[in-house]
Amino acid sequence: MALVRISGSSELSLVEQIVGQMKQLIDNGVVRNGSRAVSIRCFARDHKISAHTVAEAYARLVAHGYYQSRPRSGFFVSRPQVYAHSSDAAEDGAMEPDHLWQLRSHFTMRHDRLGASSGRMPSDWLDIDLIRSGMKSLAAKADTSLAQYGDPYGYAPLRGLLQTRLLGLGIHTQPEQILLTSGATQAADLVMRCFLKRGDRVLVEDPGYFNLFSNLHLHGIRPVPVPRKADGPDLDMLDALAREHRPAMMFVQSMLHAPTGSSLSPANAHRLLKLAEQHDFRIVENDVYCDMLGLTLPRLATLDQLARVFYVGSFSKTLSSATRVGFIAGAAQFVDELCSHKMVASITGSQVDERLVYHALSEGQYRRSVERMRYRLANALQMAGDMLEEQGFEIFCRPLGGKFVWARHLQIDDSEDIWRRAAQAGILIAPGKVFRNHLQATPWFRLNVAYCTEPALLNFLRGLRA
């Protein structure tokens, strides 16, 4: 009796049926490890299917480690060694929260947990059709260049499109001033490798981006925290810290700052640039949430025209985090140095990802998709702010857009207490300390407003009030 049963009415292709059933038979021990597989020709004859179909199925089984191909001997069963993965250490309440814990929580959180402070958007908020459309356009226009290394600076048409987008913000660039990167994280990492050295001091925001702190520590660079206010960094404190520590650089998120949602005011932007000139430090301006802000407000790079400022952007927040395409813009001679470091570290970026982003951006669907997201987020921000204030929470500010609010419970001094109680309710609320360089306790915590209408979260927050 045949162990594999093939159906012409199945939704799966013939190849998928063969591969799936053989994997199951081998995993269950029905087919013995080390035994010789039925030849391609005999399998095809017995099941009355094409030998080419069987050959493709066998090739996939070899690729997945279930078969071994031996020249002039045929195929032999080789059950792959599988190691069980345990995520117990990453369970909500099993690890002390730190910067790496916050990063891991994006990837290890159980599906039955509500990631109320996650950077991820709910699945039904994402425009999967936009990705499908981009992939379809990419496939239709694919040529032999996709089999080669791309330009280390990145796909030229996408960089040209970015020139136009930056001009819309009042930032004037030439092609050689834009370098595509594997997300905004690689852009920041390249700056650290290229322009900073171990022991250098840099200004960072408090609270700020947790992974930036981890990256700086990895390079032996010493962060000097500057308090973040509703209209940007505390510039009086920044002035004093710059006099004391003589920083080489500052990392700042000017618009829709994570985690607070605040945006830098034009007046403070001007003064920050003057302080940078006075104390002779460069600025890395992170604007990854640019497309979530419907207003055209001047960035630091707009006022500085990339003389002292590096401008960093990404499409991971609005298009797809899976594409990992970001960019950095700066003075041409500095971007050339960054490109050299990029080539040493990774040769070049992914042409597939870069072209996919280009096709998605160059067709009008992306603009409409972002407009829908901004509309939903604006409503969610309003509802979340009203709900939190009704429940007695204090909100750091009312953001101009984006997906985060920074809040605190007036009777709870340490938001780690909220984290522990939320974990018991099946909810992940990151304590505010993971957004601070030294992990100092704080009453503040971050919420993603896209989840603030979830009944489980609403009930939990109401329970805190009681």
Helices, strands, pairings?
Layout (H helix, E strand, L loop, with lengths): L13 H14 L12 H8 L3 H13 L3 E4 L3 E4 L21 H10 L5 E2 L12 H13 L15 H13 L9 E4 L1 H13 L5 E6 L3 H9 L3 E8 L2 E2 L1 H11 L3 E4 L13 H14 L2 E5 L13 H5 L4 E6 L11 E4 L2 H15 L4 H12 L2 H26 L2 E3 L8 E6 L5 H10 L2 E2 L15 E5 L6 H11 L1
Parallel strand pairs: 3-14, 5-6, 5-8, 8-9, 9-10
Antiparallel strand pairs: 1-2, 4-11, 6-7, 10-11, 12-13, 13-15
What is the CATH fold-level name of the largest domain?
Aspartate Aminotransferase, domain 2
Overall CATH class of the largest domain: Alpha Beta
Shape: globular
The SS-based structural class is alpha/beta
Give the N-to-C terminal Cα separation: 66 Å
The number of strands is 15
Q: How helix-rich are the residues, as a percent range?
A: 40-55%
CATH architecture of the largest domain: 3-Layer(aba) Sandwich
